[in-house]
């Protein structure tokens, strides 16, 4: 069996995750939501119709991070941008030419404007090196956020505000009826394993142990946290573990998840 371990550097990930919480819980940027979730975008339609490893949340994190840094670059001077980017590259142990050497190698007695040009070019240089780092921050942030079911519920409520407006006439291949996405034909093994692992093999309503280690004969149900009838979708972020009883008794108009987590001691 393949084990998927990666090296994480949480230092820049937690501040990023904190921004994401603000965006999702405060909904201050409601008017921009369609920039993140556009029904006209084929990748968005694929993600809501069939579980993809690169989820809606990955894409949201990616766009958000790019916008955050664009905003940051607009607000501060070149020197602060350079400081921040060099700090990130150092944290991730990415080698780069330090700014003094870079400036010296281009021009060391130029006018101020030339100096600014040099800094600008240097920043562009750093940004190239940052592309894979930003992607890593996206993956790290996803790993943290996927563990928080209430966050995922809030996130999917935002997505639902978009899918509810999608009409069957416009997207007949993925919509069951207006505002309701078709059920995915199957849930892949990798997703079942991830949900089972995250939810510790327990029903998220009653806490019943579904692992089969101590109690036999329990059925495992993979439930859409936001039901498809309420604008839910088939992205991995919208699934949880339930026992048979609670999945069958949960009607298509109920949204239930759990904020219970096991403590270490
Ligand atoms: Zn249950």
From TrEMBL:
Keywords: Endonuclease, Hydrolase, Nuclease. Pfam families: HNH. Coiled coil: none annotated. GO terms for molecular function: endonuclease activity; nucleic acid binding; zinc ion binding. The keyword Hydrolase applies. Residues 190-248 form the HNH nuclease domain. The keyword NAD does not apply. This is HNH endonuclease. It comes from Paenibacillus faecis. The lineage of its organism: Bacteria, Bacillati, Bacillota, Bacilli, Bacillales.
């Amino acid at each position: 069996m393949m084990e998927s371990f990666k090296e994480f550097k949480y230092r820049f990930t937690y501040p990023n995750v904190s921004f994401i919480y603000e965006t999702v819980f405060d909904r201050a940027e409601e008017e921009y939501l369609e920039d993140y979730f556009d029904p006209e975008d084929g990748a968005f339609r694929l993600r809501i119709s069939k579980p993809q490893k690169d989820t809606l949340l990955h894409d949201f994190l990616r766009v958000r991070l790019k916008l955050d840094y664009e905003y940051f670059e607009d607000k501060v001077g070149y020197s602060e941008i350079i400081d921040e980017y060099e700090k990130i590259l150092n944290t991730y142990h990415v080698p780069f030419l330090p700014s003094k050497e870079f400036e010296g190698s281009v021009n060391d007695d130029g006018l101020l404007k030339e100096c600014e040009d040099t800094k600008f070019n240097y920043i562009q240089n750093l940004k190239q090196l940052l592309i894979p780092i930003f992607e890593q921050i996206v993956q790290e942030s996803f790993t943290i956020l996927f563990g928080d079911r209430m966050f995922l519920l809030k996130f999917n409520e935002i997505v639902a505000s978009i899918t509810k407006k999608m009409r069957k006439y416009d997207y007949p291949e993925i919509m069951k009826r207006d505002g309701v996405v078709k059920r995915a034909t199957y849930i892949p093994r990798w997703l079942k394993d991830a949900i089972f692992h995250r939810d510790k093999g327990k029903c998220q309503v009653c806490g019943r142990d579904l692992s089969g280690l101590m109690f036999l004969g329990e059925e495992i149900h993979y439930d859409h946290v936001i039901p498809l009838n309420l604008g839910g979708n088939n992205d991995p972020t919208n699934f949880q573990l339930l026992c048979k009883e609670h999945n069958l008794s949960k009607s298509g108009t109920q949204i239930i998840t759990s904020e219970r987590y096991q403590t270490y001691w």
